[in-house]
From TrEMBL:
<feature type="domain" description="Solute-binding protein family 3/N-terminal">
    <location>
        <begin position="23"/>
        <end position="245"/>
    </location>
</feature>
<dbReference type="Pfam" id="PF00497">
    <property type="entry name" value="SBP_bac_3"/>
</dbReference>
<feature type="signal peptide">
    <location>
        <begin position="1"/>
        <end position="19"/>
    </location>
</feature>
<dbReference type="InterPro" id="IPR001638">
    <property type="entry name" value="Solute-binding_3/MltF_N"/>
</dbReference>
<protein>
    <submittedName>
        <fullName>Amino acid ABC transporter substrate-binding protein, PAAT family</fullName>
    </submittedName>
</protein>
<keyword id="KW-0732">Signal</keyword>
Amino acid sequence: MLKRVIYAATLACATAATAAPIKLVQDEAYAPYMGLENGQPTGIWAEFIDEAMSRVGGEYDVVVEAVPWSRAVNLVESGQAHGLIGTYHRPDSRPWIGTYSTSPVTEKVSVYCREGVAQSDWAYPADFAGLTFGNNAGFGTPGKAFFEMVDAGSITLQEAQTTEQNLKKLEKGRIDCYVQEQLAAEMVINGKGLKGVVRVLDASAETAHIGFRADWQDEESKKFIADFNAALQSMMDDGTVAEIVSATVGG
């Protein structure tokens, strides 16, 4: 089994050729994919990057930071970071992302509601009009059609910072439903013993990527992205990606 490595905030190497670090940012509270422990980024994505950079070698100085997701989005959009870790493919809502990495994982997005609020044969999101949904601040997980209904006033939206906060609001009846990646949600539901929260239906399957800033378009960026993608692909091909996921979730 692949040895778990606590991912250091900086993958700096004395032989790094770049003048300034390549800064990648991730969410600090989206287990098992992304997290923060003892000041260090953790989770499945941190493991992916750690292993990929070990395969690339010491040519690059890469810094990974874990912050609240809304701040991570802002750091990339405002040009303060080079890549957003774990983003879905969102060219319309995130035009400031120019290049998406190879996707090592596909996440299953599901709708969770208070028991008795919704039916499994409902069409998402149209049949959920009139309900109040939770969402992680800055997350585009619920999808374009959902946010169009929010903008039209058909769905009421309340945002919190973490999956746990939203699911606890759902359990307490402060919101009606919540859209989240299935593994991330059910780890909290099972881990915290939440009651009265049911998975109503699966809304979509989303590929997850590192989204690189659109205005980072020099020779360094092109070479780094190509090398990183090649390393990720080799990890997918030899089973390392599956092994990391299994080790991280305890499977």
